[in-house]
Write a structure and sequence with these properties.
The complex is a heterotrimer. Chain A is mostly helical. Chain A contains eleven helices and no strands. Chain A has one domain. Chain A is globular and about 65 Å long. Chain B has one domain. Helix content of chain B is about 70%, strand content about 0%. Chain C is built from eleven helices and 15 strands. In chain C, the strands form three sheets. Chain C has a six-stranded mixed β-sheet with strand order 5-6-7-3-8-9, sandwiched between helices. The longest helix of chain C has 18 residues. The chains are: A mainly alpha, B mainly alpha, C alpha/beta. Chains B and C meet through helix 1 and helix 5 of B and helix 2, helix 3, strand 5, helix 4 and helix 5 of C.
Chain lengths: ~260, ~290, ~350
């Protein structure tokens, strides 16, 4: 039973992956553009970071931090289209059939979008990393660091997809979800550490950030990768993964009820 | 006498068009073009007002997106005090000139940003059957007032920074006129690059990705003083994608950070050269148009 | 013919495109970027014709034959690869803006009106765009209300118009500046019979009474039948027929099919036989007999082909009623694509 369920999710995931392969060319062009953004930030941080560094960062590690985030941001945030797919499905009315499927609506969406995200990591993130590596590179030597980074990233992408899912499900109440997505993007940048280490923020903002899921998508994986923090941060990601899943399921139940009451 | 009409109910004298003078360039033609632009542009605003909700959300999104850029710069300067010797008010001035420029550009040129659509759907066909220059017809399709929020944001930042700079004596009252000129040039330079990128669609159809290169990335880069970049990148931002000429070049001189009075003239020269080049590109593109849509 | 009596002149018109050869298989998208493989497609190969003023020309051909490409070259949208065009003595490529004041263009599949605004706003805008004087504009609104009933929906936003209303509005818009030549690309597509009728009536009138030269592309044979003085057939970018419809019928044969379902299958009737006016089947054609084209015994259905210019459907039906009790009747008009196919098979 469990094996069959796993296979079902696997099939969905790989479909999402394969569908994206068609667009590889334009995504590679896109990668060059995000590498250029990365370049701008690298020079900015080289210019502003004091020679002695700040907090526990040196000039080198800040630059590595920025590069790492430029590589993973497609994976944990930008390339995720879950919200748009749910909105389209609500608009077209297909959502009624999708909700009626034996496989849970939530599980279905997450599994198929996780596949496209793996694609994003490979064909958007990795090329950005390769392009930026011209400006110096860093790879952890300790295999355990790799393992923890990948786990933290996997959770980060999951949290990213679930939070887009929540944005998408809001389409049941308001068909306009662009604003919600824009606000979320601002939070990923403002509190998640997508463009700078959180230590740069004023202390009060740092404290607020620690109580949100956004650092799971950028800051925690980067800290682990750079060996500035231990694997203990994984617990925080795990907590948010569970909490958001519960919240998303509850929201789905509410949406389902709304649909039943209004009959679509 | 052209047409020998059969049983014509409408005499040739009531037919406009064929015999009408003045579709050659000239002051009267320019005036007529401006009048037409006004009619079309106000129609587009009326059409947009059919979707007030979209207008409001679009304005909010502009504001929030712009605020991230500002937050980013502000946080860095709060922590590190200067970027390459520029303090928060000085960087703010760069930011303001650039945002006002891009805001004005996007109000009037939103159709260029969406120009890929004309190629994909073949909608450019209906532009070409009109008795006016195609660029005028395209630009007049939409004036997007929600983009004003970008320019307003720039003005807000200027309203904070300029008084501070006046107080510290880095700016004089006379400089404000030059700043206004810099904003206008900045808008024109965004137009120059936007028009060139849109023209590329005549040959390559898909330009959404290209626009990220030609607009988003260099616009973000020029929010910071160019001193932080290596030589080649500075050259790019001062020539091929000349947004730095719009804000950095004049602001640097006005703040007494180097350069000569020519720094105030360069933006005008760049606008003139840039406009010539991208209008040529547009015309070449129009002739190469393939109308593959539909 | 004297130059001034020619509305449209195309000579040696050719348009070819270079298209990249599409890759398939693994990483197709990626390999496509680095590919240099290009293939030349000749949308229009070699087309020459002249249209005298006041003529109503049907320009037909299968999908992808080069109809739209030709129309786009005639209207200045596309530049020909080689060959030349003049419309009203003006080159659409060199003097596009000047020409556009003298022609009207309607694309049936897409509107040129302002989608979100009341229809009258589109007319207002176009009047300004084409420098139509207030007096002419007022007369336009009155006249086109009589002709196309535009007064009924002047205040309705274009996006809420029915397809038929939208097409009427588009046609009126194309005529606002009183063009001498009108190019219509599928003006009746998707309309119901009533809608098509209104459009045809209007086109006939402006052609006959105002001498507007019209070039129309269509897939509907009735458009050609009711409107066109002359038919041009294009296939694979070349003109394969230039003449009137009667002649085209003679060459291709244009059977309308009448299909009848009987209560009981009439015995002894076979496909390939001929049916006389009195309902008598015979193996050889006799004067005024129609061919039985299909016999479907399990469905008790017989189909007979006839030429609408020589016989009427009721006459055929009467003959078929002689064979047995009729349960159901259906009439199939020939499709233009079929005619062209026959024409080409013939050659």
């Amino acid at each position: 039973m469990a094996a069959r369920a796993v296979r079902k999710y696997w099939v969905l995931g790989s479909k999402g992956f394969l569908q994206n392969l068609q667009y590889t060319a334009s995504h590679l062009i896109n990668s060059v553009a995000s590498a250029i953004f990365g370049l701008v930030y690298i020079y900015l941080w080289k210019a502003v970071t004091p020679v002695e560094g700040f907090a526990d960062y040196t000039v080198e590690t800040v630059v590595q931090y920025v590069m790492f985030n430029q590589v993973i941001l497609w994976f944990t945030h930008f390339a995720i289209r879950t919200h748009g797919r749910i909105r389209d499905s609500v608009r077209s009315g297909n959502v009624a059939t999708e909700l009626a499927r034996p496989m849970g609506f939530f599980a279905y969406r997450i599994a198929s979008d996780y596949g496209s995200q793996l694609y994003s990591l490979l064909f958007r993130g990795v090329p950005v990393g390769l392009l930026l590596s011209v400006f110096g590179h860093y790879l952890p030597k300790n295999p355990a660091t790799w393992a923890w980074t990948l786990l933290s990233l996997a959770l980060g992408a999951y949290i990213g997809i679930v939070s887009k899912y929540i944005v998408g499900v809001s389409a049941f109440w308001t068909t306009e979800i662009r604003t919600a997505w824009t606000v979320e993007t601002s939070l990923v940048f403002g509190l998640g550490g997508a463009s700078m280490p959180l230590e740069v923020l004023p202390p009060i903002a740092q404290r607020i950030a620690a109580f949100t899921p956004y650092p799971c998508m950028c800051y925690y994986p980067a800290r682990i990768f750079l060996e500035l923090s231990g694997p203990g941060l994984i617990w925080r990601s795990l907590f948010w993964a569970v909490a958001l899943t519960v919240f998303a399921q509850a929201l789905t139940a509410l949406a389902r009820r709304k649909l039943e009451v209004q009959g679509g | 006498m052209r047409a020998a009409r059969r049983n014509s109910e409408i005499g040739p004298e009531t037919r406009p068009g064929a015999a009408r003078p003045g579709h050659r360039a000239g002051p009267r033609r320019v005036l007529a073009a401006l009048k037409l632009y006004w009619i079309l542009a106000s129609a587009s605003v009326r059409a947009a007002m059919q979707y007030k909700f979209d207008f409001v959300t679009s304005s909010i999104i502009q504001a929030v997106t712009g605020a991230i850029d500002y937050y980013f710069v502000a946080v860095i300067l709060w922590k590190f005090k200067t970027i390459a010797g520029w303090d928060i008010y000085e960087v703010g001035l760069l930011f303001a000139v650039s945002k006002i420029g891009i805001g004005i550009y996007r109000v009037f040129s939103e159709e260029l940003e969406q120009f890929e659509r004309y190629m994909v759907t073949g909608d450019f066909d209906s532009v070409l059957v009109r008795p006016w220059p195609s660029l005028l017809v395209v630009l007049s399709r939409r004036v997007d007032l929600s983009r004003l929020s970008l320019a307003l944001q720039g003005m807000g930042v200027a309203a904070v920074c300029v008084p501070q700079l006046l107080r510290s004596g880095k700016l004089t009252w006379g400089d404000i006129g030059f700043l206004a000129l810099a904003c206008a040039c900045s808008a024109v330079l965004f137009f120059v690059v936007g028009l060139a990128a849109a023209s590329a669609a005549f040959w390559i159809t898909r330009i959404d990705e290209l626009q990220v290169f030609t607009q988003n990335a260099p616009a973000t880069a020029t929010l910071h003083p160019l001193e932080i970049y290596p030589g080649w990148l500075r050259v790019v931002l001062l020539t091929a994608l000349p947004f730095g000429v719009g804000n950095y070049v004049p602001v640097r001189y006005l703040l007494g950070k180097g350069g000569t009075w020519m720094n105030l003239v360069w933006p005008l020269i760049a606008c003139a050269v840039g406009l010539t080049v991208s209008l040529k590109l547009w015309h070449a593109g129009e002739a190469a148009y393939q109308s593959t849509g539909s | 013919m004297k130059e001034s009596s020619i509305a449209i002149r195309a000579s040696g018109l050719k348009k070819s495109y270079l298209v990249p050869v599409r890759k398939t298989g693994f990483m197709a998208g990626l390999r496509q970027v680095f590919s240099q493989d290009k293939r030349e497609i000749r949308a229009v190969d070699n087309v020459s014709f002249e249209v005298p003023r006041g003529q109503f020309v049907g320009y037909i051909g299968p999908n992808g034959a080069g109809k739209s490409t030709t129309v786009k070259m005639l209207t200045g949208i596309l530049h020909p690869t080689s060959g030349s065009v003049t419309v009203n003595g003006i080159s659409p490529q060199r003097e596009r803006q000047m020409l556009s004041r003298e022609i009207g263009v309607v694309f049936g599949q897409r509107t040129q009106l302002w989608w979100d605004l009341p229809t009258v706003d589109s007319f207002d805008i176009l009047a300004a765009m084409y420098d139509v004087s207030p007096g002419d504009y007022r007369r336009f609104k009155e006249e086109f209300h009589d002709l196309l009933g535009i007064g009924e929906f002047l205040n309705t936003p274009v996006r809420r118009l029915s397809l038929g209303q939208r097409m009427r509005a588009d046609l009126a818009a194309a005529m606002l500046h009183r063009p001498e030549v009108l190019f219509l690309d599928e003006p009746t597509i998707g309309l119901d019979v009533v809608g098509k009728g209104k459009i045809r009536e209007f086109l006939k009138r402006i052609n006959e009474r105002e001498g507007v030269t019209i070039l129309l592309t269509t897939h509907d044979l009735r458009d050609i039948e009711e409107l066109c003085d002359r038919v041009l057939v294009i296939n694979h970018g070349n003109l394969v027929y230039d003449g009137d419809l009667a002649n085209l019928r003679d060459r291709a044969g244009l059977p309308t099919a009448l299909s009848v379902k009987y209560a009981v299958m009439p015995p002894g009737i076979r496909a390939g036989q001929y049916l006389a006016r009195n309902g008598q089947p015979s193996p050889t054609p006799r004067d005024g007999a129609w061919m039985v084209t299909r016999v479907d015994a399990p469905n008790r259905t017989v189909e007979v082909a006839f030429d609408r210019t020589r016989s009427t459907a009721p006459a055929v039906l009467m003959a078929m009623q002689e064979l047995g009790e009729v349960r159901d009747v259906s009439l199939t008009e020939p499709l233009i694509d079929d005619i062209i196919k026959r024409l080409l098979d013939d050659q």
